[in-house]
Amino acid sequence: MRISTRNSAWAGILIGLITACATTQRLAPVTGHADIRDVMLKQPGSFYYVDTAAYPRHDTTLPIGMFDSGTGGLTVLDAVVRFDGHQNTDRSKGSDGIADFNREKFIYFGDQANMPYGEYAAENNLPLLTEHIFKDVQFLLGHHYYASPQDKTPRGDKQPVKAMVIACNTATAFGKKDIEAFMDRAGLPLKVIGVIDAGVRGALAHFGKTEDGTIAVMATPGTVSSNGYPHALAEQRTALGFSGRIACFPQPGYGLAGAIDGETAYIDPKAVAPRTAYRGPEFRHATAAIDSAILHRYGFDFSGQQMLFTGTPEHPQNLQINSIENYIAYNLLSLLEQLRQAKVRHPLKVIILGCTHYPFFTDVFKAKLAAFYDYQEQGRYIYRPYMAEEIRLVDPAVNTAQELHDYLLAERLFGDNHLDESAFFISVPNRDNPGVQCDAAGNFTWAYKYGRRAGELQEYIKCVPFSRETLPLETQQRLQRAIPHTYSIIERFMGRN
Questions:
Q1: Taking a C-beta distance cutoff of 8 angstroms, is the pair 113, 428 a contact?
Q2: Is the dihedral of CA 38, 40, 41, 45 positive or negative?
Q3: How many beta carbons lie within 10 A of that of residue 415, not counting itself?
Q4: pLDDT digits (tens, 9 = 90+) for 458-484
Q5: Distance from C-alpha of 388 to C-alpha of 148, rounded to nearest angstrom
Q6: pTM (predicted TM-score)
Q7: pLDDT tens by residue, 408-427
Q8: Long-range contacts of 232-239 (CB under 8 A, 24+ apart)
Q9: What is the distance between the alpha carbons of residues 312 and 13, in angstroms, rounded to a whole number?
Q10: Mean pLDDT of 313-336
């Protein structure tokens, strides 16, 4: 196979994945207790070391890196690769029918084995979340990956990145400032773009400069507990010159991100009865209780196994949610109950979809909102007084694409690459580590996933390419339906593996 000089560095990974003939590297295991950031900078030869002195700077041939806690961040990548806000000839404003990033390539990483990130705050283990985030960063900066879950030796031919997008709201909230500080410490001039500021700017675009109003943020419990969105809203209102009073109502999306990514603690299509391993909303949940007094308002679909319960649908017991649509109904009604009980003066105008998994189901959100808007009891609208007739759903990804464009333009980093050179990776439990604890489905047990201590650095996971083996069929089908353009790029990548 002949490789052009321009693409020779990147083509190495493609050849490695196709022919398995690329070089492998033996790396010293990390032992003892250590901060992942110190290991990345100070322990040459360790698995997590990054040689920052040799890191390529201002190299337009490098890919753009993007990471998330799972596959939800692919909605951000999809918005980026389809973004057309500028003329490609001179980068001036205005669509020209050609995607702005059509001459770029990307490396995407989803830390599926450790998701959902939003639960680490609830489990009082933010240090472990921070460690996961920096392992994601290290993967994008470094060269190592495993060609398959069964491989015992990592390969060393992955390219580093020229910019980094945190396509995860929880990771942005808890990690962005720390990542920026790490880049300064490492002397790496890499731009780090998060989705929270982008989402806030997108929401404010629907308001006049002096307009009062109400914004809601639907995000993971971890993102909500960080107060990242209210803080960003306060900062952006001042920076952008908004003087109106805008109330912000965060709604933790209990179980929704996990259900969308098929996490069995929240959803199990094979289940026919309530499960002991279930962790989603239920009648007696400490923080995510289904309110039995207003059960009729949720509009749950009891057909099939979309709700698991004993008793009858009219008088259910041991009720558990078992469909994504019902999770959305639960969380939207919980948000509207917040507004109703607060008796908000200004109807809800904008909802920020503050988790990258949620835009997959924008149509479901819209349908449920319409149903709640029209919902009546005894001829009285229960939620309409607190809702605008048209509520805007803001996906932060579009504003993220604009920020990435502005950075590449300012730094003259636009390349002459090709989207089909993009690569996609996912984490899987490292079954070669004898300490790893998995359930019958091959996923980390809940106690193991959230109970580990930060600093006990081991290879708990393997970062492997997307493939028919590593990406569940249900996930492939969801991606094909929701983001067909990006999925076509993923399919071509998987076809080479």
A1: yes
A2: positive
A3: 18
A4: 899 999 999 999 998 989 999 999 999
A5: 50
A6: 0.84
A7: 999 999 999 999 999 999 99
A8: 232/196, 232/197, 232/199, 232/200, 233/200, 233/203, 233/204, 236/197, 236/200, 236/201, 236/204, 237/204
A9: 55
A10: 97
Rounded to 5°, angle at Cα 87 from 399 and 85:
20
Report the range of poorest mean pLDDT among 22-31, 75-84, 271-280, 326-335. Answer: 22-31
What are the strands of the beta sheet with 423-429, ordered from one edge? 192-194, 164-166, 64-68, 106-110, 423-429, 461-465
Q: What domains sit in the chain, N to C, each tagged with a CATH number?
A: 8-194+398-495 (3.40.50.1860), 198-394 (3.40.50.1860)
- How many helices (H) and strands (E) the chain has is answered by 17, 14
Q: What are the strands, taking DSSP E only, across 275-341?
A: 307-311, 316-321
Query: Is there a contact between 97 and 414 (Cβ–Cβ < 8 Å)?
Result: no
Tokens linked to 373: 């808007």
Q: What is the pLDDT of residues 340-354, one digit of tens each?
A: 999 999 999 999 999
Q: At 420, give phi and psi (nearest 5°).
A: -70, -5
Whether the CB-CB separation of 397 and 359 falls below 8 Å is answered with yes
Q: Which amino acid is at 3?
A: I
Closest CA relative to residue 449, chosen from 462, 459, 436, 464: 436
